[in-house]
Structures are given as C-alpha cells and as structure tokens.
TrEMBL record:
GO molecular function: acetylesterase activity; monoacylglycerol lipase activity
Segments crossing the lipid bilayer: none
Pfam family, one: Abhydrolase_1
Annotated AB hydrolase-1 domain residues: 111-358
Keywords linked to the UniProt accession: Hydrolase
Presence of the UniProt keyword Hydrolase in the record: yes
Active site, UniProt feature: S194 (charge relay system), D323 (charge relay system), H352 (charge relay system)
Protein name stated in the entry: Alpha/Beta hydrolase protein
Family to which the UniProt record says this protein belongs: Belongs to the AB hydrolase superfamily. AB hydrolase 4 family.
One annotated GO biological process: medium-chain fatty acid biosynthetic process
C-alpha cells in the first residue's frame, strides 16, 4: 500500500463546491476526492507488478477487455490553416441536427471530457477507453472526445508535418472547435497522458485564462524534456528499452506516412531510419521538422515545466515516483508550489500510466481518483442541476459513491 502525497501552494485558488459555495482547491480535493486525500487515498499495486518497470511493461501490453471495443467513435476531421488535419473522435456520437435527441439549437449541454493521448498513441489506447467507458455510462452519462495528433489514430497525414511535444496550435484550434459544439457555460475538462499531458500543460501556460477549459488533468507528464532525456539515456536499460522502444514507435509512424514526409526537404529518410534512440530520432527528424537549431533547443522549448507557473485554471497532475519514463527528477515541485491553481498528486509506485491493482484481472487504480475529480468539477459547474425539469436534471453522485460506481461499472464490463 502506498499513500498519495499532495503538493500545492499554501493558499490554493477558490473554486465552486456547488452552486452557492466557494472553497479552496485543496478543500475541494479533500471533500470530493477521497482517493486523493484521506484514509482511502492509497494505491495497492498488483502483487506481481511491484515496481515501476513491471507496471510500465504491463501497461505497454495491456489492451483492456473486449467491452472496450463497444466504444465506437464518431470521427470528425478538423482542418488546419496549413492544410494539415487532426481527427476528433466523439463518444457517444454527436446527435444529428435533425434528431429528436438533439438540443433545440443543435448544441450539447452535456459536460464534456477531452482526451489527449501519449506518444504515437490515439483514441484506441486502453488508458483512454478505460476511463471513457465509465464516464460515458450511467449514472455519469458524460460526453467525450479524443484529439488524435496528426497522423495518429489511423488518420491520414495531409502535410509533411507531424506532431511534437512543443507544438500546441492544433490543440488550441481543436478546443475552440469542441467548444462550438457546446452550449455556453457547459463545463469542459481536458485530460492528457504522457506526451499529451505535456502538450496540454504547455498549452494551458501559454493560453492563461483564455482557454475554454473549466479544469484540466495531467497524467504521467515528463514535464522537463531536457532532464527527462538525460535520465532516459543515463542507464543502459532505460536507453536500450524505453528510449529505443519509443524511437521504434516513431519510426513506424514515419514509415506509415513516409511518402508525404519525404516531401519535407529538411528530412533525410535514411538518417531517420538509422536512429536507435529517442534523442537520435529527435535530432534526425523532430527538431528539423519544426525548425529548431538543436535537440536541446527543442527539448527546452517543449518542457511544460517552464509554463506550469502560468496556468490559470484548476489543474490536477498525477505522477508516480517510480515512473521510468516521466522521471521523478523532472517534477516541477517549486513551480507547482508557486501556482495556486495547481495540485500535484504523487504515488510512490505506479510506473508510466500503469497504477495496476488487483491480482487476477488487473485494472487501473488511477481511474477512480481521476473520475472523482472529473465528476466533482462537472457537478459543480453543470447548469442542468439548476433546473426544475426532472426529465433533464442529471443524477448527483456523492463523492463517497464514485469509487463504488466505477468499480460496479468495471465489474459489469469485466474490467476488475
């Protein structure tokens, strides 16, 4: 058993507890997220996944359960000014404009969760579908949408530009598009994982109070790319397993879109295919594609630890101290303590997007505290709760019941 440690400013920002009461963000967590604060705030790792490497390795091969295949996304392609595109995967599908289930003006008033995947991932990832199949189910019934990076999630690459940890414009455009699908005042939360978490936090720091998001969640964020890369390549195992594995995944994406990527005169295919580590890939491809003078310049610019001080909305960050990819040495402790809008939750164990518990059928512990936070924020801002119309008023879920509800849904779907 490992306890959750919370790091934050001495006086965190005031947030709505309900329609009439404001409390500090720390009080909000204490009252609404029992798996982040209090006697239940502990992680019991699967006995045979007892360290960060085992948790991370299991996460790499964990495909979820057949019930996750019931998530059938509705895909929307969003074009960018440069001719590129990202794929937005909605679940449940958006109501048709002429459907009786659609809102009168065609806009949703359902609280919506936006997901951002990790390196070379997409909406198919088990860590995304595992959360979505719970929050979109009864009694939560929330809307969700996944932002697939350029060329990811089996989407066609339209230009010779992919994605990187420093590029936030696609997310900025996508969030504006998603906001246009919602009625004014409808709460919107974004959650990012690994690379997606870094892009999200960097975007939040750049955007400040202009973001349409009500709150955000960062999971397994590497934060400091300069130090993170040094940590990855300082050990033989991490360099030959994690760094090499990520380089291979990126090379596979390159090969998938090889024809159009080779039209970029800055890129040499032979140099890209010869790389064996993540740093080598970023030298041969990423920094050249985005016009950086060096990989160090790219890593410095990409580091969300430089931007987290400027985040202006409630942000919950979750990291494991034994994460071999998002190394604990990269955590922006001082920056978090200087920003009243941010809370960093740490567990001693959990690996990289792992946090697997239970023996026979491991499932992710992280789903419970994250859904507690998501539910609490949505309920505090959900305008449907202010109406007297019983037919449209959603069910209010008590914080102490969220974990039981999550476990019930997971059990029903064969996740735990």
């Amino acid at each position: 058993m490992t306890k959750v440690q919370l790091i934050h400013h001495k006086e965190t920002v005031k947030v709505p507890l309900n329609e009439t009461t404001l409390v500090s963000l720390t009080e909000f967590i204490q009252q609404k997220c029992p798996h982040l604060y209090g006697p239940e705030a502990s992680f019991h790792a699967t006995p045979y996944l007892f360290n960060g490497h085992l948790q991370t390795g299991y996460a790499a091969y964990y495909k979820g359960t057949p019930s996750m295949d019931d998530i059938l996304y509705q895909r929307e392609y969003l074009g960018m000014k440069d001719g590129g595109q990202v794929a937005l995967d909605w679940f449940p599908a958006l109501p048709a404009a002429n459907s009786t289930d659609a809102q009168d003006d065609g806009l949703l008033d359902t609280p919506t969760l936006v997901c951002m995947h990790g390196l070379t991932g997409g909406s198919h990832e088990s860590y995304i579908r595992g959360i979505l199949e719970v929050v979109t189910a009864t009694p939560f019934n929330y809307q969700s949408v996944v932002i697939n990076n350029r060329g990811c999630g089996k989407s066609e690459l339209k230009t010779s530009q992919l994605f990187c940890g420093a590029y936030t414009e696609d997310v900025r455009v996508a969030l504006k598009r998603i906001q246009k699908q919602l009625k004014p005042g409808t709460p919107l939360i974004a959650i990012g994982f690994s690379l997606g978490a870094n892009i999200l936090v960097k975007y939040l720091g750049e955007e400040g109070d202009r973001t349409p998001l009500t709150a955000a969640i960062s999971v397994a964020n590497p934060f400091d790319f300069v130090r993170s890369m040094d940590c990855l390549e300082s050990g033989t195992f991490s360099k030959n397993v994690y760094s090499a594995g990520m380089a291979t995944n990126l090379k596979n994406v390159f090969k998938l879109h090889e024809e159009i990527l080779q039209t970029n005169e800055r890129i040499d295919k032979d140099n890209v295919m010869a790389v064996t580590t993540l740093r080598e890939f970023d030298e041969a491809f990423t920094r050249r594609m985005f016009g950086y003078d060096s990989t160090h310049h790219y890593y410095f610019d990409a580091s969300s630890s430089r931007k987290i001080e400027h985040v202006k909305i409630p942000l919950l960050c979750l990291n494991a101290l034994d994460d071999p990819i998002a190394n604990y040495q990269c955590l922006p402790i001082e920056q978090v303590q200087s920003n009243p809008n941010v809370i960093l939750a740490l567990t001693p164990h959990g690996g990289h997007i792992g946090w697997f518990e239970h023996f026979r059928q491991p499932s992710r512990w992280m789903n419970i505290p994250l859904i507690e936070f998501i539910t609490a924020v949505f309920q505090a801002h959900d305008r449907r709760l202010l109406t007297d119309d019983v037919s449209t008023t959603p069910q209010v879920i008590d914080p102490d019941d969220v974990a039981k509800t999550v476990e019930s849904i997971e059990h029903e779907k064969g996740l735990a």
